[in-house]
Write a structure and sequence with these properties.
This protein is of the alpha/beta class and 505 residues long. The protein has one domain: Glycosidases (TIM Barrel). It has eleven helices and 22 strands. Strands 1, 2, 15, 16, 17, 18, 19, 20, 21 and 22 form a ten-stranded mixed sheet that branches. It comes from Penicillium ucsense.
Length: 505
């Protein structure tokens, strides 16, 4: 949690860090990824048979190594909008018998050469945990139950035996399952009303938890600020052993929301992720409201928020049907850093967050036939995933504010937009980590820092200007490492992200 006091721009900013004041634990799943059958994310991204950079399974080894650097705990699959017409049985068994199908989400052809077993093997190679999304468009409940049985079944049953026949004896034990994706959207095959979705989601959840009570089921929300979110939570967050659910365990464990931010102007672009912070706060309140109205007992675990699609994305400059390959700038990297600050600050409520996506498609990591490119947005993600773990701790910021236009427009009246955006954590290793993002593109800020104890390791992400990029053979944005003695004042450079790290007393 970070509190804020507005100052005039000519006053000296202050950041006070309180490492002994633990606020909430940071779930490692806030650094989760997302792979969808879209553009070059799967084919030519994580899976590229025949390329000399790929292993015997067709997995790009350079991509695997890069993702291991991020220590990604969970990866969502197979979408995304792709889910609404995806039938998992098309993607298992002998590859020469798998059918190619028209793909309606991104208007391509799906060869099904990469499916459930390939994804599971890839997850094991990367060292990450799978998160699967059910087909709530053209799919059926029987098909969903069969998929769970295929992945998790241990008995002498049809789909568990099919998995064994396909070469996997032991179950995959997939924990996380989404009850559809963006089914509220007009772009979605079998788009639903909130009433139709809530009814279907509750009935599916009952059946799925009968088959495997250990599943973590994730409700399909909108962006956290919509009537869809309130209605579905109200209808589906019901008490265990109630008139609507005889289950001994809660049916819904998490509520999914999605948001993408972007602007062609730097300051609206950099501040836009603060809209996600307000959305998380609203969603959290709606979860509490649904539990209050439905008389859910406090002994029943409170659902957390699964922010399973987030990133900087302008769908006009990076059209989805054309592969959505963004060329990111330093401005975008600062926006990603603020996105991640939001998840750390709101760690009490956020149980998972999946950057969309992991490779090539609006991604910090790009592949070529010869290697990989780490875009500007890779570096804040790398630093956060490496260091910002453990506990969110209290911090207070006093500084000036950006007072111009915001994107979305409503953000201007809903949130402060300070020049210095801050989060702080205390790791299990006893180190304090402080992230400060200076969004001002014209000036640095000499800042008084309270609660720091030297010596301090300093990691700075910046570039010559907010339009600096790492694409087209350039590497204009990277990490600069330095030391600081922990004195009273530190100047945060213009248009920069700074991570400070020191041993707690």
């Amino acid at each position: 949690m970070t509190s804020f006091t507005k100052l005039a721009d000519d006053e000296t900013p202050t950041i006070a860090v309180h490492p002994t004041r633990k606020v909430s634990q940071i779930n490692p799943n806030i650094y989760a990824g997302f792979t969808e059958h879209m553009g070059r994310c799967i084919y030519g991204g994580i899976y590229d048979p025949g390329n000399p950079l790929s292993d015997e399974n067709g997995f790009r080894k350079d991509v695997v190594d890069a993702l291991k650097e991020l220590n990604i705990p969970t990866v969502r699959y197979p979408g995304g909008n792709f889910c609404a017409t995806y039938h998992w049985l098309d993607g298992v068994g002998p590859k020469d018998q798998r059918p190619s199908r028209p793909e309606l989400a991104w208007l391509g052809t799906e060869t099904n050469q990469f499916g459930t077993d390939e994804f599971m093997k890839w997850c094991e190679t990367v060292g990450t945990e799978p998160y699967l999304c059910f087909n709530f468009g053209t799919g059926t409940l029987d098909e969903a139950l069969a998929w769970v049985e295929y992945c998790n079944g241990t008995g002498n049953t049809y789909y568990a035996n099919m998995r064994r026949k396909n070469g996997r004896e032991e179950p995959y034990n997939v924990k996380y399952w989404a009850l559809g994706n963006e089914v509220w959207g007009p772009w979605q095959v079998e788009q639903m009303t909130k009433e139709a979705y809530a009814h279907k989601a509750l009935q599916w959840a009952k059946a799925l938890k009968l088959l495997d009570p250990s599943l973590v089921l994730i409700l399909c929300g909108q962006d956290g600020t919509a009537s869809w979110d309130y209605y579905t939570l109200k209808q589906c967050l019901v008490p265990a052993h109630s008139a609507l659910s005889t289950s001994a365990v809660p049916l819904i464990d998490m509520h999914s929301i999605h948001m993408y931010t972007s602007s062609n102007e730097h300051l609206p672009n950099a501040t836009a992720p603060l809209a996600a912070e307000r959305a998380i706060e609203i969603t959290s309140a709606l979860i509490d409201l649904a539990r209050i109205e439905n008389k859910v007992p406090p002994s029943q675990p409170r659902p957390t928020i699964c922010f399973d699609e987030w990133n900087v994305w302008d769908p006009i400059r990076a059209e989805g049907s054309l592969g959505a390959e963004e060329s990111y700038t330093l401005s975008d990297a600062l926006a990603v850093a603020i996105w991640l600050n939001v998840f750390v600050r709101k760690s009490r409520d956020v149980g998972m967050a999946c950057i969309a996506q992991t490779v090539n498609v609006i991604s910090p990591l790009m592949t070529t036939k010869e290697g990989i490119i780490k875009q500007t947005t890779w570096w804040p993600l790398y630093l956060f995933s490496r260091f910002m773990r453990g506990w969110t701790v209290s911090a207070h910021v006093s500084c000036g504010v950006y007072e111009g236009e915001t994107a979305p427009v409503w953000l201007r009246s809903a949130m402060d937009t300070p020049w210095l955006d801050v989060s702080a954590s205390l790791g299990e290793d006893g180190y304090v980590d402080l992230v400060v993002v200076n969004i001002n593109e014209k000036r640095g800020f000499e800042t008084k820092i309270e609660g720091v104890r030297g010596p301090v390791d300093v990691y700075t992400v910046t570039g010559e200007g907010v339009q600096s990029t790492n694409m087209k053979g350039k590497e204009e944005v990277s990490i600069r490492e330095s030391k600081w003695d922990g004195g009273v004042h530190y100047e945060f450079p213009k248009h920069s992200m700074t991570l400070m790290r020191w041993k707690a007393e």
